[in-house]
Specification:
about 400 residues; alpha/beta; 15-stranded parallel sheet; 15 strands
Length: about 400
């Protein structure tokens, strides 16, 4: 804290500006500013954001102390725009008695017009259920959930939600997951990681065909073992997916007219699928490819690369950056990389990174040992369509 606070310094700023500055602090830090001067005693109460993160509750004293602090902060506000809670209940019984309080806190902020809600709750008992008040909150714009079970999805209506993040959450079914997003009519950004489905029950074929997220512009999905129709994502500008977990043979691939940033993970040498995707991304500027996860199934992968008859439009007219991740240096991978170098006339950078998990690599036998010098020599000497393209090897 500054040694001197006077009207010529920060203390001379308008109250709205000071409250905006305090909104970037944790609630504990904002409360601490009350000792600066008389003007600051109650200023923190006008801040519309509440943040309590990295909270550990391992004993009764910590449990009661935190509950008292949070309730006092909640009751001091008549309007709450942002609520961020990150809490770990260490003992078994603390999880059982703590979750009902979390639901009450969420109910309170929902009733007070919350727009940004971030919840990260961990217990040593069952994963907590999503508080019911969230699923019909008309004011929510950003929702970030970590460690929840989503059971009741039939009544979900989130008319103002634009950004939705799920981390380590459990859904009753793939159908439930898809319907949650379908009931967010203006959703622009979806992030989902490490999602578990209790059943693989999905939408009927006709429902899948009619599913459309026309407002979505950014999608990032990893470790989500579900069939997700790519046709529903036709309007996205940025897309990161594990293609082997989401795509099914004979799925329709839409033309992504707005897609400029594509990251395909777990490609597993499915070169025809890669070419299909490139043919449907006419404005692609940035392409990241990863062969497989460490525990990915590489049995029966297609080792042969065959140059397609027609060069995808994005290679000729728009691609500027290409990153090849988990590059094993197989002959088919080298041929694919050379094909991009040979045809990407506007390419500025190509970055090659080898397998990051050395122990796994060694366990697969000598056939997977990567000769980095050979890879670098082969690609560095290969002719490039772009005279300005820079190669980097890691």
């Amino acid at each position: 804290m500054p040694p001197n606070v006077d009207d010529t310094g920060i203390n001379g700023l308008p109250e709205t500006v000071l409250c905006h500055i305090l909104s970037f602090l944790s609630t504990k830090q904002a409360v601490a500013t009350s000792v600066l001067s008389k003007r600051w005693i109650h200023l923190w109460c006008s801040v519309l954001s509440i943040e309590f993160t990295n909270i550990e509750v391992d004993d009764l004293e910590a449990y009661f102390r935190f509950n008292k602090s949070l309730y006092s902060v909640l009751l001091s506000r008549t309007s709450i725009k942002s609520f961020r809670l990150g809490i770990r209940y260490g003992g078994f019984h603390f999880g059982y008695i703590g979750i009902p309080h979390v639901a009450k806190w969420v109910d309170h902020v929902v009733q007070n017009g919350v727009e940004h809600l971030h919840l990260d709750v961990a217990t040593r008992v069952d994963m907590p259920k999503l508080p019911a008040s969230i699923i019909t909150c008309k004011t929510l714009v950003v929702l970030n959930l970590n460690g929840f079970t989503v059971n009741d999805f039939s009544s979900i209506r989130l008319p103002s939600l634009k950004i939705l993040h799920f981390e380590s959450c459990t859904f009753l079914s793939v159908r439930a997951f898809l319907l949650v997003m379908a009931r967010c009519p203006i959703l622009e950004e979806l992030q989902a990681a490490h999602i578990v489905f209790q059943s693989d029950d999905s939408l009927a074929n006709q429902e899948l065909k009619s599913l459309s997220f026309s407002k979505l512009i950014r999608v990032d999905m990893i470790c989500c073992y579900c069939h997700f129709p790519l046709t529903a994502l036709y309007n996205v500008e940025s897309l990161r997916i594990e293609i082997d977990k989401m795509y099914r043979p004979h799925d329709e691939i839409p033309t992504f007219h707005n897609l400029t940033n594509l990251k395909l993970l777990s490609l597993n040498c499915n070169w025809p699928l890669l070419i299909q995707m490139l043919n449907h991304c006419p404005k692609l500027q940035k392409l990241d490819l990863s062969e497989a996860n460490v525990d990915g199934d590489r049995d029966g992968v297609q080792e042969n690369w065959v140059d397609p008859e027609c060069v995808p439009e994005c290679l000729s007219l728009s691609l500027r950056s290409c990153t090849l991740l988990e590059f094993f240096g197989r002959e088919s991978e080298l041929l694919m990389a050379k094909y991009i170098l040979k045809n990407a006339s506007l390419l500025q950078t190509m970055t090659i990174t080898g397998p990051q998990h050395r122990d796994y690599l060694l366990s697969q036998g000598p056939q997977l040992h990567v000769n980095s010098e050979y890879i670098e020599r082969e690609l560095s000497s290969f002719p490039r369509a772009s005279a300005t393209c820079q190669l980097s090897f890691y």
